[in-house]
Specification:
Distance between the termini: 15 Å
Number of strands: 11
Shape: globular
Strand order of the largest sheet: 6-3-8-2-1-11
Helix content: 10-25%
Length: 198
């Protein structure tokens, strides 16, 4: 398939997302967006490891994030590939977010935050649930929801990440380290995206 065809499919998908986004995204709207993103994830003719390679084990990077559109401050679609063993600190997104799988499994740990009795800049988290994101099973978040991920097994992932705003524009994202310290997530944890749009 041509890059032009893939770009047209992405644009048609994003047009639908923009309509929902303009009405405002709540948990009910997230359900609608998940359905659309899962349909896109079925297009393995357009989204696969041949077109979007996984990192090569032992060559430094354990995660690639391909940015699939650039429309300014609008919903932004990424395709992420993570190697087994990759994990993240618990973090928020500052905007709504959805993860849907093309290939592979990713364990998502969803947390609740408790600041009571903690000094400023610290918190504690309690695990609310675990969700294994894999083809047909997605996960969605509003801006202040917290999650961390881990990839186990032997297969790299290829997962769509769709955000209400581009990750690169979000300065209020935070992560929580093992000691409960709150830190700026983008500044301390986020590697640059790979531009995969015309």
């Amino acid at each position: 398939m041509s890059n032009a065809h893939r770009a047209a499919v992405i644009e048609a998908f994003l047009q639908q997302i923009r309509v929902i986004n303009q009405r405002g995204v709540d948990r009910a709207a997230l359900v609608d967006i998940v359905g659309l993103l899962e349909q896109l994830a079925e297009r393995r003719d357009l989204f696969n490891f041949d077109e979007f390679p996984a990192p090569v084990p032992g060559q430094g990077s354990t995660a690639f994030r391909y940015r699939l559109n650039d429309d300014g401050d609008t919903p932004t679609l990424y395709l992420n590939s993570l190697l087994p063993g990759k994990s993240t600190l618990p973090h928020n997104h500052e905007t709504w977010a959805i993860i849907s799988a093309v290939e592979g499994q990713e364990i998502n740990y969803v947390y609740a935050r408790n600041d009571e009795g903690h000094e400023p800049g610290f918190t504690s988290l309690s695990l609310e649930k675990e969700v294994i994101v894999q083809p047909g099973t997605s996960i969605s978040f509003l801006g202040e929801d917290l999650h961390g991920i881990k990839v186990e097994g032997e297969q790299a992932t290829l997962h769509f990440h769709l955000y209400g705003l581009p990750l690169e524009s979000l300065n209020g994202r935070y992560g929580v380290d093992a000691d409960g310290r709150i830190l700026n997530y983008n500044a301390s944890q986020m590697a640059p995206s790979i531009k995969a749009y015309a």
